[in-house]
Amino acid sequence: MKRNIPLILAFLAGLLMIVSEFIPHRPFSNMVETLEEWFMIIAGFSIVLGLASLLQMNYQKISTKAENWGYHLACVIAFAVMVIIGALWGMEDQPGLLGQGEKIISWLGKKPFDYTYDNALVPLSATMFSLLAFFIASAAYRAFIIRTFESNLLMISAVIVILGRTGFGTMLTSWIPENYRFWQLPVLADFIMQYPNTAAQRAILISASLGIIGSSLRIILGIERSYLGGDK
Amino acid sequence: MSLNTSSVIERRIVYFLLFLAVLLPLLFPIGWGSEVSPVVKMSYDLIDQTPAGGIGLISFDYEASTITEMQPMAVAQIEHAWSRGQKVIATALWPQGPQMAAQSFEEAKRNPLFKDKEYGVDYVNLGYKVGGMVTVQALGSSFKDVYPKDSSGRDWDTLPMLKNLKNIKGLRWICSLSAGEPGLKDWIMIAHDVHNVPVTGGTTAVSAPGFLPYVNNHGQLTGLLGGLKAASEYEALIDKKGPATTKMDAQSVAHILILALIAVGNIKVWIRKRDNAKKIEVKDA
Fold this sequence. Notes:
The complex is a heterodimer.
Chain A: H1 4-22, H2 28-63, H3 69-89, H4 102-108, H5 112-143, H6 149-164, H7 167-172, H8 185-220
Helix pairs in contact in A: 1-2, 2-3, 6-8
Chain B: H1 3-27, H2 38-48, E1 55-61, H3 67-83, E2 87-92, H4 97-109, E3 123-128, H5 133-139, H6 143-146, E4 173-178, H7 184-192, E5 199-203, H8 208-211, E6 224-226, H9 227-237, H10 243-284
Parallel strand pairs in B: 1-2, 1-4, 2-3, 4-5, 5-6
Helix pairs in contact in B: 1-10, 3-4, 3-9, 9-10
């Protein structure tokens, strides 16, 4: 019974959503609107769950002094600082427990939450993402080696697209007359992106969509039950 | 020197070269121009052809990590919409989206042409909602039900530009600036495919190839901005020398360096293979 009720609920909700796509009128439209509202409310709770999980996981690592526990401590301290300054003075136009914090704004130029967000989180996040470029450069040097016919094709199209996406590529082939414009690197790069790439992407999309339909049907019909948790 | 040490040194050289390739063009701009691609022009035309007074929506579906690629697109599109007398709504399917939107409006207002743009009249920031595709679906029924207040807590009814907006069909265009899921795909599938509202979008360069199939005869996606290059093309179209244009030189030089590194890597492997073949020949002899 404990497992059957969720299965029945999933079946009914799934069936309702499918029926409403084909009959978008009352009572189905109203029922779907209600389900959408429920979904947004339940999804809101996932944020609370995520925060609780973050704190629990980091607390465990710190209390057991696991490897690199200092980083976990830094994470918890950063979390606590943002929550406290956000709660005390609010963010943007929203007031906090101590109001708008005019004195601090006159000193920092912004509210402490916004100041920390703009001057710590934004540059740190951008730096983390930018580090990818260094790994890509290093990987390209070590791993992008021509060994087979297919890797040759990949290399040629990569060179055209990379060069075509730079100002240097535009400059390099700008001398080619307008009648032979197709051979200019940016145009050639656009051609590769719009035709061979799009054809391959469509194939991937269609296969993925068929897979999603299949797995959705399995969930609705109760064949796939892993979302219920447990090992049965 | 062991193979491992040599590999570490090589890696450090690669990192240093890339650091220089990015830094030098930022300090000493080269000024390479770039050609506007058709998909960027489509996106530009969508906003350009919308009549004054029309309301467009930009969904800020990214966070601080991709700010370098996405923010210039947002600022350029806001400035473009404002220059055509349109109003802009900002929403977000990502938690950090409202901050990204606030920064974009702030930056656009630094342009002397738009310093008088008024909150609630010319633009609003409705904030973040959880739920991804379901949120977009709910906007199809009622905007006010999903966003009874804006990101700062102002009531929907106190914002004059939203007075006549009932649901998603009241929008002239939608642009999702998306760095992943939820994002552009959800807007295409619901806003365009169900409600027939024109949707355009911007993504990071690495995600752009995956969205090109949606730029098709059915108009699922009206143009696409893929990465910093597309942002710089958009800036060129609105006649602005913005951050994307400045950073494109650095990206171009970095790309050329990566090509050079690929060539060097291949030559190295080729030489190693030739030496191994020679050694085998000598052994056999």
